[in-house]
Design brief:
The complex is a heterodimer of chains A (421) and B (218).
Chain A: H1 3-6, H2 10-15, H3 18-23, H4 26-58, H5 63-69, H6 71-85, H7 110-153, E1 156-158, E2 161-163, H8 166-203, H9 207-260, H10 265-291, H11 294-299, H12 301-310, E3 316-320, H13 328-349, E4 354-361, E5 364-371, H14 384-395, E6 398-402, E7 409-416
Parallel strand pairs in A: 3-4
Antiparallel strand pairs in A: 1-2, 4-5, 5-7, 6-7
Helix pairs in contact in A: 4-5, 4-6, 4-7, 4-8, 6-7, 7-8, 9-10, 12-13, 13-14
Chain B: E1 7-11, H1 15-27, E2 31-36, H2 39-48, E3 53-57, H3 67-78, E4 84-88, H4 96-100, E5 108-112, H5 119-130, E6 134-136, H6 138-146, H7 159-169, H8 174-181, H9 185-198, H10 207-217
Parallel strand pairs in B: 1-2, 1-3, 3-4, 4-5, 5-6
Helix pairs in contact in B: 2-3, 6-7, 7-9, 7-10, 8-9
Classes of the chains: A alpha+beta (421), B alpha/beta (218).
Amino acid sequence: MTSATRTSSAWSAVGGNPVRLVLSSWPWRSLLYLLTGAVVGLVSFIGFFVTIGVGVLTAPLIIGLFILGGVPRLGAMIAGLERRRLPVMLEEDVATDVSDTPWWRTPRDAASWRALGYAVLLALFLWVVDALVVVLVVTFVVVSLISPLLAHYDTVGMLWWQLDSTREAVPFAIIATPVGIVVGAYALTVLAAAQSSLAGILLSPREEELEARVTELRRSRIELVDAFETERKRIERDLHDGVQQRMVALTMLLGRAELDVPEGEGLALVRQAHSEAEAALADLREVVRGVHPRVLTDLGLAAAIREVADRMPIPVRVDVFLDERPPPQVEAAAYFVVSEGLANVAKHSRARSAAIHARRSGDSLVLVVTDDGHGGARLGEGTGLSGLVTRLDALGGTLSVTSPDGGPTELRMESPWHVDR
Amino acid sequence: MARRPLRIVLAEDSALLREGLVGILERAGHEVVASATDADELIAAVRADPPDVVITDVRMPPGHSDEGLRAAAAIREDLPTLPILVLSQYVADAYLPALMDSAGTAGIGYLLKDRVGRVADFLASLDQVVDGQTVVDPEVVRQLLTRRSDDGPLAALTAREREVLALMAEGRTNGSIAEALFVSDAAVRKHVGSIFAKLDLGDDNDRRVSAVLTYLRG
């Protein structure tokens, strides 16, 4: 966002055809902006006056210091209100508050100080100008319009003119009212445009602040992906050290029981229990594999991908050669792209074979899953792949699918090799 | 009772499973001469008093990764004739090279811990490892079977020969393979001979082991 986009397009209306300006919505929008501005400004003035007054008076009681400390907060509140008023004049999307300081803390960043400065300016000066101009313009237009009526009862003084009777007032009304409307429209629009532009500039984040914000967001997203990975590893380990171990111990116990229980119904039940326990263990292993594959942690991407490929009902050619291991987040994303991708191939594609190709290309990892199925695959909502799109996005990578009807389908992942924060 | 009592060093960090294993081994008449809870303890115990066979978990402290495998490899460097049986809660063919490439001529085994509960089979596997054979979990064999090797020496084998080889990898005898495949002993011998020929293995006694190793590496 540049400062140019923050200024009001009311300016171009001012520079254009006067008739068009008067007939446009700008004078009315300006009137609304200035009127509400006068109200907000007056309330702000009272707010600052009371807060500072009470704060100074109670300062000896310590509590006043806290009240005075709330002044920047008050400024931020006024600035927030002002941002909501801006759309009346600005057609750009409204600048939002860039400060992420919680409401009970005093914000200290540059944007907050600018916002406070604007609030003070509004409370002390701007609203007075707004009120004066609005009152002047509205009074002039209204009075000149009804001056024939007023002159009937009393002498009406309009600027340099003295209107004593309706007969004098009618020509005046006919000439002065349109002039008043045109001049007033300009005055209102220019003032409102100037003020909203000022507010837009002071209340919007600067370029570098936005950039810092983007960097911050990117970092926090990568942290989120990290946290996600760490959590999965923890769950895998908990399962391994907990339930899985107890289940293995149970199969050992049942195995020993089989040796001791005499032939008969009891032994048959023990054997059945043993089989059930083994089946439960096998299921549990599948779950653990889905949470975080051990082979990936221990032996890296190529081995883990080969293992997924081995479990597929159709032949899968694995062509993965990486000279070193990428960071764990990239490795995990690539692994889950392969496992989700192959799961989709098995479920939907009716493919007879598939292939996985992964290479380091410059400073990125490129991984492609292809199959010879009937195509028509999408990265739609609800597929496990849509979650991976988000995950790769956080890493600065992409996931795309090319799948014409009739096939073949190509799922392509690209990710930066290094994860910068 | 065991064919012969074995002196065993056991490495397993979970007390629950250690007790289960010791219970099964001692009931069979074997003697657990030392129990280790991590790789260093295991190596120290084996060096102090070499047993007949080592049984070790793959995942142990401090890293909870593949310490057991690395300890097994280290032990094989020291004592190439000491048989080792590796147990894991999770098996994958990807771990095989680390086991198979380690130096040594003694038997080696790689089994899921679930198999321990099948006590008779487990004790038989233990005996096979002590006898110098290579025993690999059926789960790993299944993974190897699904892998299509388009090249390498195994490509020349027929589907039946691969099946026979897979069963050999599980440590089965010709007779047991014949039973499993519902064919005659003579048929199995014919397949085995054909496998040896196709894999270009010599006439020495280790052909069976070499064939299995070729298979596992392929």
